[in-house]
Amino acid sequence: GVLGSLIIAVSVAVFIVRLNGENNSKVLQEQRESIAEYRVELELIHDLLSKVQQEMNETKWNFEVQKPITFELLGKMQQDIQTQRKEIANDREKVSKWQAEFQTSSKTIENETSNILKDVLQVIPANRKLLEQSIESLQQDMKKCQEAIADNRAKQELNSKLIEDMSQVLIELKSELSTQRDEASNNRNENLQQMQQVKSDHEQMRSILNMHPGPYRSCKDVHRKSSGKYHIRGKDVFDTFVAYCELDKDGGGWMVIQHRFDGSLSFDRNWTDYRNGFGEVDGEHWLGLERIHQFTKGQDCELRIEMKDFYNNSKYAKYSSFAIGSESEQYNLTTVGEYRGTAGDSLKYHEGMKFSTPDRDNDNAESNCAKSYQGGWWFYNCYRAFLNGLYRNVNDRPEKSIYWNSFSGDWRGLSYSRVLIRPLN
């Protein structure tokens, strides 16, 4: 009965503790655990007493024998119970103390919470107003952003359309540009051809305008004192042709039949070219064997040869008579008169010789001199004078060049030669 009362008291205490400490589980958790331990011990004691009672019932016949022991055990148990009661009383006192402290703390927390809640409730309206204003401002900003996004999207779509249109235009422009470039290239070629034709026509016109009236029987009949191109018709036995008349040097009246000065014109030509002539009469040229023959066969003519080397030394050779035969006679050098001048006489060696070209060998040498030295001339075996040679600045005998043996006594090539004829009468 005492043990049951003790258990009930402990249970009531626990219930009270639960009621008072329901909201402070953390503070009372340790006490709960301690009381639970006490309950376990009490239950163990109760079990022990039950066992003892059972044993006492079972051994009642031996009670007298066991009585001292039983009393001793009961005394010991009463002492233990008394000790447990004291401990429970102490714990109850502690629980009461903790409960009072908990109530005080709860009251303080409740007051502080109330104050905080009041402050919060006072701040909420102002903050709410600010929040509403912020939300309204954000909504306005969002609306503006949406409008800007819509505007930008429209602009982007417009730009995309413009870019697409511009791309198409660019493709068309590229195609048109390519077409125009091709047309320009074709027009350029046509313009170049037209310009070349105009230039050629202009040069021909200028050539015509630069020629003085004529025709004249010879340059000696030109009474003007301006050297240049003139129409010459000889003795009315051959067609009129254009020749360059030198009207200043040595009394004037000279007709140029050969001129070399820069090597721009090749004199390595065939028989037909030498017969008909080649080059421009106001530049490097050969007048033509047939014209020279026609001009010299009907009148006595004199010959003048002007020469210069690459060291700028100038000399001349002049002959009192000069004439060549017809084509049937291979344009042989029929007459070379008396020499006078500063270059020495190297032409007399060739008098009487037929004219030779690389394709027509009329010389007295075993080899073809014209082919070997690459030019036409009145070769003998092969030459002492050769004014139609290669234009080269050389000094050795094996080299091919414009040559006049007595000019310097060596084998130097000449840089300039001009052959002129003039009627004696």
UniProtKB/TrEMBL annotation:
InterPro entries: Fibrinogen-like_C, Fibrinogen_a/b/g_C_1, Fibrinogen_a/b/g_C_dom, Fibrinogen_C-term_domain, Fibrinogen_CS. SUPFAM superfamilies: Fibrinogen C-terminal domain-like (SSF56496). Residues 1-21 form the signal peptide. Keywords: Coiled coil, Disulfide bond, Signal. Transmembrane segments: none annotated. This is Putative ficolin. It comes from Anopheles darlingi (Mosquito). PROSITE patterns: FIBRINOGEN_C_1 (PS00514), FIBRINOGEN_C_2 (PS51406). Pfam families: Fibrinogen_C (PF00147). Residues 74-101, 128-201 form a coiled coil. GO terms for cellular component: extracellular space. It comes from the Eukaryota. Residues 210-425 form the Fibrinogen C-terminal domain.
